[in-house]
């Protein structure tokens, strides 16, 4: 009798469990893909965003500091400037005015009735204007003929000059720095007003040198 062939059974190893989500993937494929993306510059690691940073408001503090420094300094500078201006105004009011050493204009000579004769030298003038009155101070040196012509223009004559008489007040003289108190000098004077509408012209002549008299005039007009 023939024997039946023996059946051979082959033992197989038990199958290992595949992690979830990796079924169908070849081992080592994911790291290779990451490396390829890195080489191409397309791979960027995920960085979680930071919360927004609240900016510090520093400019209000800077403005407050600036005002605290600038405002007191400004008051100090303004006070000093006002004090200086006040002092300068007082000094200017007390100081004598400076004559302008040039001929007064034709308009001034006509308004104040001061016809400075031709050929006069050392001509100087100064004008003040106010609501109550306006005054023109004039000085010049002329010849005896020029002095006579000047007085005749004002309706006066040379013999009418009062010797040892100064018709210009001390306050008027001090306003422009004139001094008539020198005892070594001789003066003669006259005050002329041709009409009520004309200015009052006070004339003082230094006749110490008769050949070259020096004439001082203060003409005052009131509106």
TL;DR?
Helices cover 32% and strands 18% of the residues. The protein is of the alpha+beta class and 223 residues long.
Secondary structure elements and pairings:
Blueprint: H1 29-40, H2 59-94, H3 106-112, E1 121-129, E2 134-141, H4 144-153, E3 162-163, H5 170-176, E4 187-192, E5 200-206, E6 214-221
Describe the 3D structure.
This protein is of the alpha+beta class and 223 residues long. The protein has a domain at 106-221: 3-Layer(aba) Sandwich (Protein Transport Mog1p, Chain A), CATH 3.40.1000. Helices cover 32% and strands 18% of the residues. The chain has five helices and six strands; from the N terminus they run αααββαβαβββ. The chain has helices at residues 29-40, 59-94, 106-112, 144-153, 170-176, and strands at residues 121-129, 134-141, 162-163, 187-192, 200-206, 214-221. The protein has a six-stranded antiparallel sheet with strand order 1-2-6-5-4-3, covered by helices on one side. Strand 1 (121-129) and strand 2 (134-141) form a beta hairpin. It is rod-shaped. It starts with 28 loop residues before the first helix and ends with a strand. The model is unreliable at 1-25 and 86-96 (pLDDT under 50).
Indicate the percent of residues in helices: 25-40%
Range of strand content:
15-25%
Instruction: Please summarize the sheet with the most strands.
Output: 6 strands, antiparallel
Q: Count the helices. How many? A: 5
Report the strand count: 6
Q: What number is the mean pLDDT?
A: 78
CA gyration radius, whole angstroms: 55 Å
Distance between the termini: 174 Å
According to CATH, the fold-level topology of the domain at 106-221 is Protein Transport Mog1p, Chain A
Main-sheet strand order equals 1-2-6-5-4-3
What's the SSE pattern? HHHEEHEHEEE
Uncertain stretches of 5 or more adjacent residues:
1-25, 86-96
Using the alpha-carbon principal axes, give the shape. Answer: rod-shaped
Name of the level-1 CATH class of the domain at 106-221: Alpha Beta
